[in-house]
Amino acid sequence: MFKEESIEELLVRYTRGELDEKGRETLERWREASPRNEALFQKVTSARYAGEVIRRFVYTEEEERQAWQSLRRAINKNKARARRHAMMYAATVALLLAAGAGYYLSSPRALVPFDDAPVPVATPTLLLPDGSRIDLGDKQALDALAVARPGMETSDTSLSYPRQEGRDEELHLLRVPRCGEYVLTLSDHTVVYLNAGTELAYPAAFPDSCRVVYLKGEAYFNVSKDERRPFTVHVGPARVEVTGTAFSARAYEDEPVIQVVLESGRVNLHAGERVISLLPNTRGVYDKQAGTLEQLPATPAYFLGWKEGRLVYDNMPLEAILKDACRWYPFEVVFKRDAARSLPFSLNMKRHGSVIEVLHLLEATGKIRFAYDDHTITIL
Length: 380
Fold this sequence. Notes:
By secondary structure, the chain is α+β, with helices and mostly antiparallel strands.
């Protein structure tokens, strides 16, 4: 159970940018506990961000600083009695700073109704070296594949190659379409989770000297450890080299950067003559146009939520969130206001069979309005 006063404090510290890793983990668990919690989080944090734009209409910086100093004095003076009320006041301050801003900017609007848009069944395909194409959602095709390749385990959600080495090195190509996901186990027992709109090329069996695959899109790799055979993932003009570790790589062709997030172990990210070594809780970012390569801190949970069937974003621009959502849901996005593209949102919720709940949750913040027609989402 979560104590209400503790959550209030965490929300306040989050909006102030003062929340440590332990606090973030507690707040994440609370958000995941129920849709009501997530909705409250959205209202508080979105109000905070909106309020920063026109705080001058509500508080001056000095007035806000004095308010927070008074709050801290109240907490320190009588923690046992005043803590609950002080934290409620702090949460209210964080909310009303922007609630007032929203009041000046626009009057309250009702939610725009939408027709439901269920996610269609999207099954991956496997292209074999002989040119044959196998629908991995077709049971008869899967049964035939298992007969043709003894030891291969197949289903509509996963494909597993038997352990073998030194032969069958021609590349297989696994394509996961929009609105789809898939799990692949390679011949060395490396497990790969493939996100929507992803392609992975790999051999049915790795040679004795190396393990090499080619990725377009996004995938999470749990690499089987093998010191004598490094594992290399080619991602466009860059490549990731490991011997045994867990990491994600994102290399969609329509995005300006290639990103690698390390969960455990150690990886080297190469781009041309440049190379950086990543440790856990860091990410490497390669800018394809500028040719720059840099290492940044990262919280893996924010980058790996898709693997667990969740939508997880921390203060991300709306355009980036909806671009991702277009890979999972069958709709296109049109922005009527360019300013709406950069509006920041934080989100952590289960990915549902319909996009409606996601859209209503974002709209309930009061920062944007949607219209929906014929699989097109228009940001008004």
